Amino acid sequence: QSALTQPASASGSPGQSITISCTGTGSDVGYYNYVSWYQHYPGKAPKLIIHEVIHRPSGVSNRFSGSKSGDTASLNISGLEAEDEADYYCSSYTTTRTVVFGTGTKLTVL
Amino acid sequence: QVQLLESGGGDVQPGRSLKLSCAGSGFRFGNYAIHWVRQAPGKGLEWVAVIWSDGSNQYYGDSVKGRFTVSRDNSKKTVYLQMNSLRVEDTAMYYCARDTGMTDFDYWGQGTLVSVSS
User: How many CB pairs under 8 A join A and B?
Assistant: First the structure.
């Protein structure tokens, strides 16, 4: 049950777009379309921003979008804003009926 | 509105036990699976366990399997996490979260802090 692999950090200037990758295996990301993304501010509860690879919950900005190819899922954030500076985690359902999170990416808005 | 409230955290010595609670309100508690997720200081999120809506099944992360037990009482709208044989590495903020049905978590509690040290 190894964590999904994410880059430790990402950065971009306001208005730019960034993409965060999330690499798993054929037993999790590659097997199911049950990949989610969470935005996490320190000291706060994580917030669901993408579910089932591509779907945005109501109220989440359309600047956030998700995709998947093979064993790798991606989160794209367009039109970066200062408030996007946070930690981002992916997660996936697995073939053993468990859930695995990604290693997390710290996003810095320059 | 939907709320989850964790309680029961605290300081405990290695080898001892602790029981966390997660109380839900504002939704049909018995219709949802509930997960426990933790975050150790300076580390990322780690999935701990899940209990299905009717309590019929539970699954655990490898690091807690055999030591932690998740249970629920739908009449009290509460899920529990019994943590035995605690280790220093179990020190973390523990969150409970509601499963939408597709193993994504749409509501989270604010967390309860568990500190294991001698």
Answer: 67
Select from B50, B61, B111 the Cβ nearest to the Cβ of A45. Answer: B111
Q: Residue B10 has which token pair?
A: 């605290």
Contact criterion met (CB below 8 Å) for A21 and A104: no
A97 neighbourhood in chain B, CB within 8 Å:
57, 59
User: Residue A26 corresponds to which tokens in the numbers above?
Assistant: 């054929």
Question: Do A57 and A63 touch, CB atoms closer than 8 A?
Answer: no
Q: How far apart are the first and last CA of chain B?
A: 40
Of the candidates B35, B26, B68, B37, the residue with the CA atom closest to the CA atom of residue B53: B35
**Amino acid at residue number A43:** G
Tokens 């798993």, located at residue: A24
Task: For residue A2, give the DSSP letter.
Answer: P
Reading the block at residue A23, the tokens are 């690499």
d(CA B73, CA B67): 20
Residue A43: its pLDDT value, please? 87
Q: pLDDT means per 10 residues in chain B (118 residues)?
A: 97 97 97 97 96 95 97 97 98 96 90 96
The CA distance from B85 to B112, in Å, is 19
The 3-class secondary structure across B5-58, one letter per residue, is EEECCEEECCCCCEEEEEEEECCCHHHCCEEEEEECCCCCEEEEEEECCCCCCE
For residue A21, give both structure tokens.
């990758």
What is residue A84's three-state secondary structure? helix
Binary contact (B111, A34; C-beta < 8 A): no
